[in-house]
Amino acid sequence: MKKYLSIVSLILSIMIVMSGCVSSSNSSNTSGASNEPITITFDQFSGSGDNEQFLKKMIENYEKDNPNVKIKMQSYGYNDYFTQLTTKVAGGKAADVFELNYENFVSYAKKGALMPIDDIIKSNNIDTSIYNQPALKAFNADGKQYGVPNSFSTVLLIYNKDLFDKAKVDYPTDDWTWNDAMNAAKKIRALDKNTYGYYQPLSYNEFDKVAQQNGGNLISEDGKSFTMDTPENVEALKYMVDMQNKINVMPTPTQLERVPNADWDLFKSGRLGMIVTGCWSFPDFTRDCDFNWDAVVEPGNKQKATHFFSNGYVINKNSKVANEAAKFITYISSNKKATQIRLDAGWELPPVNDKGIIDQYIKKTPPTNRKAVFKSLDSLVTPRVITQYAQLQDIVGKHLDAAAAGTVTPEQALKDMQAECQQKIKLK
């Protein structure tokens, strides 16, 4: 009997131990899990280099406000980023959150690599009205919101006031035309053989914008056909090519080779009267320019047109922490502490409608005319984004290079561009 009781007692003891083990296991999967940090993996490019310290500060603030969440960030330089991202997405190893620029966003959305966040935004009562609405819309495709902007920028005409004074030319104004810019550029170019009047990259984005300044477009309004070889576009391309080759107020590629970092360094060296570039240049020019400079809205011809650029954060469609990821990306892109960090650093423009932030931005100098950043939004155009965007850029760029090199006329370059795009790129 004693032996029997001993056996029963042993069995009961084992059952109690096992029960404790099961209970412990279940606890780790439920309430226990909530005590463990949630890890969000995060890949990005715009916060690399000098800007990484500011992004890390934003993340530190987020983790402080959300002690159960840890952010595992991986930074890449822009030139390497999309190669890494393409490989990760293809292999199903993309981070929970990753950064995309406006130009590449659509192709990833169309591939099904991104998670729509409309329901997450609604269920978590996330207020998106704080965002600059064009910037927010940039990360919407087919009526679905896939991400939020972390910055936005506009392109402006930035000019060297000292060279204008030396050439005895009136400073540019927000209502300048192509002719105004050309006339001023000629007078500045005449100062000496090493000084140039104007610089604007002959690239897809820039040509697309200049074409729209002349009433043209590279793709029809409905997005169904290419419209590259129109008279308006021919005139626009001739204007850009002539500035470089015929009048030479803009340096040729050969002339630009003599400058280590090309256009920006030419401007910072005091040898360039005007440059068309983005407001992201302000910190560099403030630090490196030992002359007076300012900014205005870009010149137009038949109408004004300026480009808008935005980077944003999106969520991997396979993320297991999508809710927390959504809270994280909205925090570091629109939270007051985060936007203040970006503003103080001069790191592009916070993508928010916060009047206090905007007023602080406008009051910072140089440039004195920071209002031009916002005034340019009145004539906003965006580069037409399609699924084969990278291929479109390559084709257009190739034919623009041919026109710039003088191997073909602007007319022929646009005819060739039209034909190749029709052959190789599928629109709607």
Topology, element by element:
Blueprint: H1 2-29, H2 31-34, E1 38-44, H3 52-65, E2 69-75, H4 78-90, E3 97-101, H5 102-110, H6 118-123, H7 133-137, E4 140-141, E5 144-145, E6 147-160, H8 161-166, H9 178-189, E7 196-199, H10 204-213, H11 231-245, H12 253-256, H13 262-268, E8 272-278, H14 282-288, E9 293-296, E10 306-315, H15 322-334, H16 336-345, H17 355-363, H18 371-375, E11 380-381, H19 389-405, H20 410-424
Parallel strand pairs: 1-2, 1-3, 7-8, 10-11
Antiparallel strand pairs: 3-10, 4-5, 6-8, 6-9, 6-10
Helix pairs in contact: 3-16, 10-11, 11-19, 15-16, 19-20
The number of strands is 11
Number of domains: 2
Q: How much beta, percentage-wise?
A: 5-15%
Fourth-level CATH superfamily of the largest domain: Periplasmic binding protein-like II
CATH architecture of the largest domain: 3-Layer(aba) Sandwich
Instruction: Look at the structure and give the CATH class of the largest domain.
Output: Alpha Beta
Low-confidence stretches: 1-33
User: Major beta sheet, specifics?
Assistant: 9 strands, mixed
* Radius of gyration (Å): 27 Å
Structural class designation = alpha/beta
What is the global morphology? globular
**What level of helicity do the residues show?**
40-55%
Q: Termini, distance in Å? A: 86 Å
Instruction: From the 3D structure, determine the CATH topology of the largest domain.
Output: D-Maltodextrin-Binding Protein, domain 2
Question: Given the structure, what is the number of helices?
Answer: 20
Give the rounded overall mean pLDDT.
90
